[in-house]
Every structure is written in structure tokens, then in C-alpha cells.
Specification:
The complex is a heterodimer of chains A (about 250) and B (about 775). Chain A has 7 helices and 11 strands. Chain A has about 250 residues and is α+β, with helices and mostly antiparallel strands. Chain B has 23 helices and 26 strands. Chains A and B meet through helix 2, helix 3, strand 2, strand 3 and helix 6 of A and helix 3, strand 3, helix 4, helix 8 and helix 9 of B.
Chain lengths: ~250, ~775
């Protein structure tokens, strides 16, 4: 019989993002904020450019009016196999686990921010302040997710609490996980299914299939970070595939 | 105090004592008190969550994660046919509306106009409401947001019991849309648009991937449209870069009010070149006088429409030759003085496509199950002008509002506040105090949808009968110290029913829901099967509703339609305030991605969600063409005055390239005064709706909310906009093409595109150096 521990280590979690389907609607952003108790980015925080968003939608302009396009791309922690953020951490608060995930141990973090400086994707966020919610709004906080205190780094965890729950439940029922059974909050929310989460070790999973698509690329691949987030290129059906962005 | 671990656990298990212990350790008392096992909801299992299915107030099926009586997460209901498990950016904001720190805690009475509000008991409030409704026999007005299903049925019954009326209000009303659908298809409900099955989509004005009607439903369809075996081609005609325009393969930058001319010009090419079967052409042209269509030849209309003749012809050929094709529109295309003409011309294109009732086309929706009201739209602006004149004349004794903020949502010119002040009794059901509440005598705290029973008949429906069920999924949050309910809110309709007593046959909303579900059980069909009605009810509760995929409407192409040219007219824009000099623009108000029309403005998540196009949050901005702004000497963050004959607002400029040079686009939703809208919305931004000029759509009397012209001048000074995006001006050399968004041509691989881009980049660098 396969033990629960063996089942756990047999996974390599990852995400596929079909940019051609992304409409920039922000449903993923909001779902992530709720699920992961992300501190509220107030107006002042926006002005200070210290906005928290474990997943964000970047918008780029291509061309000039009227031949102009706004294109969107969701960016989150790429969970790199060769993560630049990992070796620079002096206290091993961030490390790569056996399931392909770049993991952050909050209570080990001492806030040097080296990882944030090392990350080429700008997906790590430092808690400059203690997160504060009015007392009534705390009713809604997710009890599965630690609230990060002032002075430590945080980032996308691939909704590890959902992964742990899914794996645990499958193990308790002595069965294999079914592709799609575990969803991160963002993939769950995405109306167009531009975001897909799954196990790269499962050849039949949607993420595996998408990772073999002709349109597959990885973000900043020249850096050789080997992300576990793959993207499918956007299709331009009007022949203007190459354009400047501002 | 020194405790052993066993002693600690024993004490901690005892509610209050546990709280004391933890308080001493620095953990807030209310957290533990709420979680104390002596006072927990009966469905609680410590540490285990429950997911309840219900229907939200935008027509989506949702499941709500509840732990220890408190809602933690809202997600799409995977079973529900409208959204298939998906959600919108604003879906989760209902959690913050539920637990909002500024929620109205209990009933409040204003004893005289202008006096402050004082708390009263629910018994007293119910007594007053009963009295005021009885006093208003024959002159009672109940005003709500457009609702369907049980809400509409019961509210209408209550209004009828007093010989009063139920009036719907929607700031960005869709009445013109319903009128056009009636004209072209003879349908009373918005049809289903089979975007997923289409090969070509041609849309006008409506930001259907952002905020129009049911963007989550359309988003699921769009995903399939892009990702199916055949990647569809999408064209979108709109004057500003909305999410839908951004998603389109071809953005047609039509001038405001000329969407109808564009649609007819496309039709003229299809008819002239006979690009579709003869039957389709004869149905389309049946009532068009000979030679009339030729007046809309692309070369004749291109200048006024703002789209080149070549693009019009390309659109016509694509639409006709790469089917199945579908055309639809709304939003700003209908919000013109000639809105009905525009939308009629747009929907008539489906006759040419010949896809009505077919895959990839328009599917009609059946009437609501069990006779439930199945369609709703806000009353026209003309109706509102009449209604307000009755209020002003003292002909209406009692006005009851719920889910609407008339003062915020209607143009300043109609002076809603003044009209409300002439009504003897104004009762406002609300969650957070809004502008209209200032004119109310009686404020009644209303439940969140997470605390209510209800039935919804979604619109647009998926082409078959669907009834969404709403159920209370949370316990009322308690105060950590007093154990009293933090918000003593009630269901709006139950409160009205209590006041109406025997005048209305319905006892309560829950009773109505149970009776209707029992009727569905008796019908013996649909998505839930059960051995008895109790189990059937459980099944409907668990699935969040009932639907019958077999109960569809007969759909077929009409053999002829009224001439789309019959009421052809150009748009009539508002006059300008000639007292000031400046650059003239047409204002395009648009619904905010998360605040929508302002209904979510009180919640911090909705405020903090960056606008997808500008990435601005927490503010009102004005989108202005990049080159035009440069010409005017306006840069990002500068304050500009936008002046119409109805008033003036001062907002910050956000220049970008995705908007016509003659337009200024301003989001709706902000502009609440100090002390209004809760701590997150008060004294923030500006309300563009208030400065709209009261131009009306010529056939329906709807507010032509996209037909206001303004003079724009610099107001002096600037401030950094609170926005998410960085500033690219510091970048000396552009990044390699394809970073971060790699773009490929159809059939091109990512590898090939990257190689090509890299080669270009190397060439660029060598030239540069």
C-alpha cells in the first residue's frame, strides 16, 4: 500500500496560464485576497508602491490609438526550481519542497528581504506594518491561513492549505487524487479557465498537457529559473503579432 | 498565574473562563467567545467547515464556506448553470458587506426632516411602518433595484395590496436593450448568447467581459470560445478600451451614438455582396425600402462612424463568412438619444447570420418557472421624472426604498433629495447609510443576502428554466462582550409582509420559497429527484437551485423583422456650458469593475481592487487620450474640471492610448459625501452620474447616459494617483519583445516567436549601440 507520505512526495504542483483566455477581470486577485488573508492595500499603500497582491494582473499597452491593444497577464510566484530567492535567505525561511513548491516559513523569517531583492518576478511582499482589520471584518478571516505579522515576507503559496487538505483527504480515503480535485483560489475563480492548477507528475493532468502545448513558454526563461508556472502565448489573429509596449 | 497544561485545557474549554485565560495571553476575547463550545451554532463541528449553496445578488450561484457560524469564503457554485463554479471580482465583497464595521446596527428614526437619527426598537419600527403603509393606501411607492423571482413577486404583491406601485431603479438602465430585443426577436427576456459555440462574435458598446449583464457567464463562454477546437474571432465596437475591447481581436473605435450606423453598414456589405443565403437577406430586408440600405455603404458612413470603410468591409466578410456568428450589444451603445435604433440595428444582424436558435447564435429563454417574474430592468428616466413629480407634488405619502441610492444614482438636475423631502414618510432599508438615507425618516437595517431566503430567476438564463435558491448561511455575528447581535437586521420583504398582515397571502419569504419548491417537486421534472417533498427541498438547498435543461423555448429565425432603418437617427448630444472655455469632450461613464454602479463602494476589497485598464484603486479618475492630453498639457494625476450644463466635478487625469481623442471616460461608483457610505467610501472621489445632462432616448425615454458633453479644463495642481502599475519612464531600453507577454500568430509556436523576437532584439541593440 502506498503511504500518505509517498503520495505527498509524488506530486509536482504547478500552474498553467493561458494568456489568450485572460480578460484581466481581477476575479483571481480578489479570490486570492480572501482565501489568504492578504492585508488590505489602502490608498496610502498604493501610493507608496507597497501593494500586496500574491497574484496580480499586469496590463501592457501595445501600439497607439486607434491601433492599440491592452494585454493582460497574471503574475504570481513562479515556484521556480532554481529559485533565486532561496539560496539568499540566511535563515532558510524560504526553501524548495519536494512537491515543486517554493515555500515560505513565516515564523522563521527575520525580514532581511534578500529574497524579495533576488526575485526577478517581484512577487514577494514585505509586511512593513502589522496587518489590521476592524474587529467585525476579522469574522471573515480564513482560519486555515496564518496572518503574517510585521517584519516578514509573504508570497503566493499555491494555496498550500488546500493542497494539504486535498492530499490528506485522498490519503484518508486511500485513493489517488483526481486531476482538478485540488484548486487554488485563483484557478477556482477564473471565469475563462485561463488559470489551471495541477500536478506536473501526472502526465494526463491538464497542466501537463498544457505544458506540452506549442504555445508554452516560461516567464523570463533566459534567467533559467525553471518556473513551475508555465504560460501559453497570446494569439494575435490580426497579423500584428509583434508590437511595442510602453 | 501558573497552570499545568491539563488545567489550562480544562479552563480553556469553559467558555468565559477560557476567554479570560486567553485574554491574559493577549488573544482577543471576542475571538474565543464566539468560538466557545457552549454557544455555538448547532451545525458546528470544531475545525470542520461547511459549504452552503445559495444565490448572490448578482444572479450567480455561489457556495459559501462557513466555519463556526461565520462566512469565510465565497466561491462559484460548480453546479449552477449560470456561472459553472466561477465568480466575479466583486463576489467575495459580500463577506465584507456582511461584517462591515459601519453596518446599520438597528432601526433609526428621524422625528422631523433635518433632525438627527435616533435608535428605536424593531417593535416601534414595525408599528410605524404598518401605520405609514396604511396611511399611504393608493399612494405608496416601493423602490428597489431590479429584482426577479420571489423578491419581485412579493414586493409587487405588497405594493398591489396598497394600490401602490413597485418601481425599479438602475443607474445604468438596460431598458433600451429590452426594447430592442422585443422589436427584433419579440422576446420579453434577454436571450442566451452562445458565445462558446460561435466562430465569430461581433459586439457593440456592451462590456460583457467586464460589467455588462452577466460577465461571469459570458466569461465562461469566452474561455471556451478561445480555447475550443476552433479559436473564435472577436470584433468589438466601443469608443473606449473596456475589458471587452481589450479582449477583442479587432477593436472598432466607433464614435458614440453611431453603433447603429456601423451595424447597418456591415449589413449593407453583406446584402450587397450576397455573403449569406438569400432567405436571411430577404428576412432582413423585408421591410426596408428598395435602395435605402445603400445609403449606409461603408464609404458613405465611415467618417461619421469613425471606422474606416476597409474595416467595415472586413467585419462584414468575417461575420458573414466565418460562422456561426453572433451579434449583440448594449451599454453605451443603447445609452444614446438614438439608443433603440442602435440596438435594433445590432441585434438585426443575427437575422443575416441565420444563427437564431442554432449553435453559436441567439437562443431564446423560456418564461420563469412557476410563473416567477423572470426579467427586470430599471424604470426609464422619463418614468422617474414623472414619479418624482408626484413626490414633489405631495401625491405620494410613503416611499420605501431598498437596494437603491436614488440621490447618488440620478442626475442632479432632477433633485431627488428635494422630491424625497416632500414625501411624508420615507423608509430606507439599507446596510450602510447612503446619500438617500439622509432624506429618510425611518432607516431599517437590511439583511445581507447571506442571511436571507429567496428565489431568483437569473437573467440572462442559459436557454432553459433555472430557479436559484437563496438560503441563510451564517449566524448573526455577536458582540464579544455583550453577546448581543452586532447588527439587528431583518429581511426587507419579511418586514413588509409583517406590516401588510392579512392584506398579502404570503406569510414569509421562507414560506413562499418552500411552497414554490413544493410546486417544483409536484411538477416532477428537473435537476433534483427525490422520494418526497422534504428530500426534494434538501436537494434544491444542496444544489443551490433547480433547473430543467429540457425546458427550453422554441427559437427560430423570424421570416421578417421591422426595418432596422425605420427610426434611423444620429445621436443628439447635450448642449455645452458656454460660460467656460476649454476642450469639448463626450463623457463616457462606465461601471467600475468591482464597485459596479457603486453598490460595493462601502467594502474595502472592492475599493482596493485595481481597475484592470488603469490599475487605479480607491479613487475616481478620468481616462483621456494620451495624445490629446499631451496637446492640452495634461499629465497623469493632474486635477481637471469636467463641466456640463448640470454641474462640475474635479477629478484626476489618467491619459492612455486606448480611448478616442474626443472622449473622456469616468468610472461610476464613488463620490459619497463625508459620513456617507461607510468609512471606506466616504469623502472619496466624485460621482459622474450627478453631472449627466437629462437627455433621453427618443423611443423609450431612458436616460441617454452616454450623451453628455463636457468642457474640460485644468483645475490646477496634481497628486500621484493610487495605482498598481509602475512607471516605465525610467526604462532606458525596451525589454525584448515577448517579455512578459509572448504573442504568436495563429499556428506559430512559442519557440519560433521567441527566436524571431530575440533576433529583432539583437538587431535593435546593435543599431542602438
Amino acid at each position: 500500500m502506498v503511504t500518505a507520505a509517498e503520495r505527498v512526495s509524488s506530486h509536482k504542483w504547478g500552474m498553467a496560464v493561458d494568456v489568450d483566455r485572460c480578460t484581466g477581470c481581477q476575479a483571481c486577485v480578489m479570490a486570492c485576497q480572501t482565501e489568504n488573508n492578504i492585508p488590505l492595500s489602502t490608498e496610502d499603500i498604493y501610493r507608496q508602491k507597497r501593494t500586496f497582491a500574491w497574484i496580480r494582473i499586469e496590463r501592457y499597452w501595445y501600439g497607439d490609438f486607434p491601433n492599440v491593444k491592452a494585454r493582460f497577464i497574471p503574475i504570481m510566484c513562479q515556484h521556480c526550481e532554481n529559485a533565486p530567492c532561496e539560496p539568499v535567505c540566511p535563515v532558510f525561511a524560504t526553501y524548495h519542497n519536494t512537491e515543486g513548491m517554493n515555500v515560505q516559513i513565516y515564523n522563521r523569517c527575520v525580514g532581511t528581504r534578500y529574497c524579495g531583492a533576488g526575485c526577478p518576478y517581484n512577487v514577494r511582499f514585505f509586511n512593513y506594518w502589522e496587518p489590521v482589520w476592524p474587529s467585525t471584518l476579522r469574522n471573515q478571516l480564513n482560519p486555515d491561513v496564518t496572518i503574517r505579522s510585521r517584519g516578514i515576507m509573504e508570497k503566493c503559496s499555491f494555496c498550500v492549505q488546500r493542497i494539504r487538505r486535498g492530499v490528506r483527504e485522498a490519503a484518508q480515503e486511500d485513493r489517488d487524487l483526481v486531476d482538478g480535485e485540488i484548486q487554488t483560489a485563483c484557478t477556482d475563480a477564473c471565469p475563462t479557465n485561463a488559470l489551471v492548477f495541477g500536478d506536473f507528475n501526472d502526465d494526463n493532468s491538464r497542466v501537463s498537457i498544457m505544458s506540452h502545448d506549442d504555445r508554452k513558454y516560461t516567464h523570463l526563461d533566459s534567467l533559467n529559473t525553471e518556473p513551475n508556472v508555465v504560460y501559453l502565448a497570446q494569439i494575435d489573429a490580426t497579423g500584428g503579432a509583434i508590437g511595442e509596449h510602453e | 498565574m501558573k497552570l499545568s497544561r491539563r488545567e489550562f485545557m480544562t479552563l480553556a474549554g469553559g467558555s468565559t473562563a477560557g476567554a479570560v485565560i486567553f485574554t491574559a495571553c493577549g488573544v482577543p476575547a471576542d475571538e474565543l467567545l464566539v468560538e466557545a463550545p457552549l454557544d455555538l451554532p448547532e451545525d458546528l463541528v470544531n475545525g470542520i467547515d461547511s459549504w452552503f449553496a445559495t444565490t448572490d445578488d448578482s444572479g450567480l450561484g455561489v457556495i459559501v464556506r462557513v466555519m463556526e457560524g461565520r462566512a469565510k469564503k465565497i466561491a462559484g457554485n460548480p453546479d449552477y448553470p449560470i456561472n459553472l463554479g466561477k465568480q466575479a471580482a466583486h463576489t467575495d465583497t459580500a463577506l465584507q458587506a456582511l461584517y462591515h464595521p459601519d453596518r446599520v446596527e438597528g432601526p433609526m428614526l428621524r422625528r422631523a426632516k433635518g433632525q438627527p437619527l435616533t435608535p428605536i426598537s424593531w417593535d416601534d419600527a414595525n408599528g410605524l411602518l404598518e401605520q405609514w403603509m396604511s396611511d399611504a393606501e393608493g399612494n405608496l411607492a416601493i423602490v428597489t433595484n431590479p429584482v426577479r423571482g420571489a423578491d419581485a413577486k412579493i414586493a409587487r404583491d405588497v405594493a398591489s395590496a396598497y394600490a401602490g406601485r413597485l418601481v425599479f431603479f438602475d443607474p445604468l438602465e438596460q431598458g433600451v436593450l429590452h426594447s430592442a430585443i422585443k422589436t427584433v426577436f419579440d422576446q420579453n427576456r434577454v436571450p442566451e448568447f452562445d458565445i462558446a459555440g460561435a466562430h465569430t462574435v461581433l459586439s457593440f458598446g456592451a462590456d460583457w467581459l467586464g460589467t455588462w449583464l452577466s460577465p461571469v457567464r459570458y466569461g465562461t463562454k469566452y474561455g471556451d470560445f478561445r480555447g475550443g477546437d476552433h479559436r473564435g474571432f472577436m470584433m468589438h465596437a466601443e469608443s473606449r478600451m473596456s475589458l471587452t475591447a481589450a479582449a477583442a481581436d479587432r477593436w472598432l473605435t466607433v464614435n458614440p451614438g453611431y453603433e447603429g450606423d456601423l451595424a447597418i453598414s456591415i449589413a449593407s456589405v453583406i446584402v450587397k455582396d450576397q455573403l449569406v443565403p438569400e432567405n436571411n437577406i430577404s428576412a432582413y430586408t423585408a421591410n426596408i425600402p428598395e435602395g435605402e440600405l445603400e445609403k449606409w455603404a461603408p464609404e458613405s458612413v465611415a467618417d461619421r462612424v469613425g471606422v474606416s470603410a476597409e474595416l467595415i468591409k472586413e467585419a462584414a466578410h468575417k461575420f458573414a463568412e466565418d460562422g456561426p456568428s453572433i451579434a449583440f450589444g448594449g451599454g453605451s451603445a443603447g445609452a444614446q438619444t438614438n439608443g433603440a435604433f442602435n440596438l435594433t440595428a445590432i441585434y438585426a444582424l443575427n437575422i443575416l447570420a441565420g444563427t437564431i436558435g442554432k449553435k453559436g447564435g441567439v437562443q431564446f429563454n423560456p418564461a420563469g418557472a412557476q410563473g416567477l417574474p423572470d426579467s427586470a430592468t430599471g424604470a426609464s428616466f422619463e418614468t422617474w421624472e414623472n414619479e418624482l413629480s408626484h413626490w414633489r407634488a405631495g401625491n405620494v405619502k410613503t416611499v420605501i426604498t431598498r437596494g437603491v441610492d436614488l440621490v447618488h444614482g440620478l442626475p442632479r438636475s432632477v433633485d431627488v433629495g428635494g422630491a424625497l423631502d416632500k414625501v411624508d414618510n420615507v423608509v430606507a432599508f439599507t446596510g450602510v447609510l447612503d446619500e438617500s438615507s439622509e432624506h429618510a425618516n425611518l432607516i431599517l437595517p437590511e439583511n445581507s443576502y447571506l442571511e436571507d431566503w429567496g428565489l431568483d430567476v437569473p437573467e440572462p438564463a442559459p436557454g432553459y428554466e433555472v430557479v436559484g435558491l437563496r438560503q441563510p448561511v451564517v449566524n448573526a455575528p455577536l458582540d464579544g462582550e455583550t453577546r448581543a447581535r452586532l447588527y439587528d437586521s431583518r429581511n426587507f420583504l419579511d418586514t413588509l409582509l409583517l406590516a401588510a398582515g392579512s392584506r398579502v397571502s404570503v406569510g414569509s419569504v421562507k414560506e413562499f420559497v418552500e411552497d414554490t419548491v413544493a410546486d417544483l417537486y409536484a411538477a416532477g421534472r428537473g435537476s433534483v429527484t427525490a422520494g418526497d417533498s422534504r428530500l426534494f427541498m434538501n436537494g434544491v438547498l444542496q444544489r443551490g437551485g433547480w433547473w430543467d435543461v429540457g425546458a427550453s423555448a422554441a427559437t427560430g429565425t423570424p421570416s421578417s423583422i421591422p426595418s432596422p432603418l425605420a427610426n434611423a437617427a444620429g445621436p443628439g448630444m447635450s448642449e455645452l456650458d458656454d460660460r467656460v472655455e476649454g476642450h469639448v469632450f463626450t463623457i463616457v461613464p462606465f461601471a467600475h469593475q468591482s464597485l459596479l454602479d457603486g453598490r460595493n463602494a462601502s467594502t474595502p476589497w472592492a475599493q482596493a481592487t485595481p481597475d484592470p485598464i488603469t490599475t487605479v484603486a480607491w479613487a475616481t479618475w478620468a481616462e483621456i487620450n494620451f495624445d490629446k492630453a499631451e496637446e492640452m498639457g495634461i499629465s497623469e494625476g493632474q486635477w481637471i474640471k469636467v463641466r456640463t450644463t448640470a454641474g462640475e466635478i474635479t477629478v484626476q487625469a489618467y491619459p492612455h492610448p486606448g480611448i478616442s481623442p474626443n472622449l473622456i471616460a469616468i468610472p461610476v461608483g464613488q463620490g459619497h459625501k463625508e459620513g456617507i457610505g461607510g468609512r471606506y467610501a466616504e469623502d472619496r472621489g466624485e460621482n459622474v452620474l450627478n453631472i449627466l445632462v437629462d437627455k433621453k432616448e427618443s423611443e423609450t425615454g431612458a436616460l441617454a447616459w452616454a450623451a453628455t458633453r463636457a468642457v474640460v479644463t485644468k483645475a490646477g495642481g496634481s497628486k500621484e494617483l493610487p495605482k498598481f502599475e509602475g512607471d516605465a519612464r525610467a526604462i532606458i531600453r525596451p525589454a525584448e519583445h515577448g517579455v512578459p507577454i509572448l504573442i504568436v500568430e495563429p499556428g506559430q509556436s512559442a519557440h519560433d516567436a521567441q527566436e524571431h523576437n530575440h533576433e529583432l532584439h539583437l538587431r535593435f541593440i546593435s543599431n542602438d549601440e
